[in-house]
Amino acid sequence: MKLASKVAIITGASQSIGKGIALRFAREGAKVVVNYLSNKKLAEAVVAEIIENGGDAMAYGADVASEQEVQAMVEATVARFGTIDILVNNAAIDPRQKWNEISVADWDRVMANNVRSQFVCCKAVYPYMQRQQYGKIINVSSVTYWFGKTNYVHYVASKGAIIGFTRALAREIGGDNITVNCITPGAVKTETELAKVGSEAAQDEAEAELKTLQSIPRRQLIDDLDGAFVFLASSDSDFITGQTLNVDGGWMMH
């Protein structure tokens, strides 16, 4: 088990990619905090699955853009598990809007949920990681940063900011033996993505197009992604920091 006895907070972990990371971390021996914003039932189902398989986890509802709520989550984590070793900043929103129809309020909401949340969470866990001179922070960006995406200007801008934040923070806290890295997932097949696409025919069309863009011509699944998170959360990556790992089946290469 690569994460035996480690304590991990995963934001936005009640479904989709976050859920997959939580389940994989638990299988690798980590004690997991399943953060959610509003769907307590889904988060508790993730926790139940972890416990049924012999792991340890708890669900915690918090708006990760709120300093007060994040601080309370961190304190609850330490009270339950004793420390924090790993933070995965996964929570995000991605509304579809034409760029000139995005209001300032829309822009600010995306930046708060996608960028400020990562800053707030990092700041809250840092004292505990600094004290123990150990920590792994993994920020989630997006493949859309590499190529831009029509009708997602605010989302793509937020994901670019995350890469810059990752690099700068890695410079500042490397001396505390804390690594900060970033993952850019590709077009991962999740329940939320399928709901956005709509009909089964539209889903098939979208998948066919993706296969022509990727070097590995099949749809990316959550299981294709979680191994990268385990790597960056484990001792295998102790001398890697400030990096962005692109996991997209060879869609974008850099």
Automatic annotation (TrEMBL):
User: What GO terms in the biological process aspect are recorded for it?
Assistant: monocarboxylic acid metabolic process
Which Pfam families does UniProt cross-reference here?
adh_short_C2 (PF13561)
Q: Which InterPro entries match?
A: NAD(P)-bd_dom_sf (IPR036291), Sc_DH/Rdtase_CS (IPR020904), SDR (IPR050259), SDR_fam (IPR002347)
Instruction: Tell me which SUPFAM superfamilies the record gives.
Output: NAD(P)-binding Rossmann-fold domains
Q: Which family does it belong to?
A: Belongs to the short-chain dehydrogenases/reductases (SDR) family.
Q: What is this protein called?
A: 3-oxoacyl-ACP reductase
Q: What is the lineage of its organism?
A: Bacteria, Pseudomonadati, Bacteroidota, Sphingobacteriia, Sphingobacteriales
